[in-house]
TrEMBL record:
<dbReference type="InterPro" id="IPR008963">
    <property type="entry name" value="Purple_acid_Pase-like_N"/>
</dbReference>
<protein>
    <recommendedName>
        <fullName>F5/8 type C domain-containing protein</fullName>
    </recommendedName>
</protein>
<dbReference type="GO" id="GO:0046872">
    <property type="term" value="F:metal ion binding"/>
</dbReference>
<keyword id="KW-0732">Signal</keyword>
<dbReference type="GO" id="GO:0003993">
    <property type="term" value="F:acid phosphatase activity"/>
</dbReference>
<feature type="signal peptide">
    <location>
        <begin position="1"/>
        <end position="21"/>
    </location>
</feature>
<dbReference type="InterPro" id="IPR008979">
    <property type="entry name" value="Galactose-bd-like_sf"/>
</dbReference>
Length: 278
């Protein structure tokens, strides 16, 4: 019994010693790691999402809390780029917004030394609701599916994280990523119905190291009998939004649409969104 008591005392002393040695980090102002005194900013606003950019002077793992209430926020977003490490370039999509609504956001992050940084609260207003009669027949929710894809990151299935289905889910936070296909990446979608599309929307993904950016694409409209017509190349000026391109097929019924990368910055190229409108 004495030996047991000695063991318990020793365990208690070790635990107490461990707890005393721990110190909680202070929260430091984010402006200590601004690059060129430039604060985080909302770069573009839309009716249901907004894009955010911040360049820190040191690598940090960054997150953005946001919401209609400037005390509780309620939502959080981080860089969707495929990395678990801290970085200097921070591109974040704030999604699930209500149209024409004021939102508050705060940037916060941690560096490799355990320092925690937090910014002041900033705000922006989402755009009024966009009215459109266009219908996306390439959306999974409308019955479309992936017919072919060059590859998926880490060879996952189409339905897994970074799989090709994420180019068709109409979610600005998710993205299909190829497995390092660069300029050879492609995706083909089997439309929810044969139709005569008027335009195709393409949104490139990107990585914080500057790779995976698609600069231009070709779009091929394919009929049921295999007859096809290719449009392009079309330029994608940025990776912050979808760009729509006219591909009027008049009275020709199209069964599937294929997008091929023409030029990119290489690496795990892919798409945030692919839409085909009628």
């Amino acid at each position: 019994m004495l030996g047991l008591n000695v063991y318990n005392v020793a365990s208690t002393m070790l635990l107490a010693s461990t707890c005393v040695a721990q110190t909680l980090p202070q929260v430091l102002p984010l402006d200590q790691i601004f690059t060129n005194n430039t604060a985080p900013a909302i770069t573009e606003t839309f009716d249901t999402y907004a894009t955010y950019y911040f360049q820190s002077s040191i690598p940090v793992a960054c997150a953005v809390v946001y919401g209609e209430d400037n005390t509780t926020f309620g939502m959080i977003a981080n860089d969707p780029a495929m990395t678990t490490t801290a970085t200097i370039e921070h591109n974040v999509v704030l999604s699930d917004l209500k149209p024409d609504t004021v939102y508050y956001f705060r940037s916060q992050g941690s560096d490799a030394n355990g320092n925690i940084y937090a910014d002041v609260i900033r705000s922006f207003r989402s755009e009024p609701e966009t009215e459109s009669d266009a219908f996306n027949i390439a959306a999974l929710s409308n019955g479309a599916s992936v017919k072919a894809v060059s590859s998926n990151y880490a060879d996952v299935s189409n339905s897994e994280l970074y799989g090709a289905d994420e180019a068709l889910d109409e979610d600005p936070v998710t993205a299909w990523s190829s497995n390092g296909d660069g300029d050879n990446a492609f995706i083909e979608v089997l439309l929810s119905e044969e139709a005569s599309p008027t335009s195709v929307g393409v949104w490139s993904r990107s990585m914080t190291d500057g790779t995976a950016i698609i600069n231009s694409v070709n779009i091929t409209m394919i009929q049921a009998d295999g007859t096809s017509k290719t449009f392009g190349p079309f330029d994608l000026p940025t990776t912050t939004q979808e760009y729509q391109f006219d591909v009027a097929c008049e009275d020709t019924l199209i069964q599937s649409v294929r997008v091929d990368v023409v030029e990119s910055t290489g690496g795990n190229t892919g798409l945030v969104n692919l839409a085909v409108y009628v």
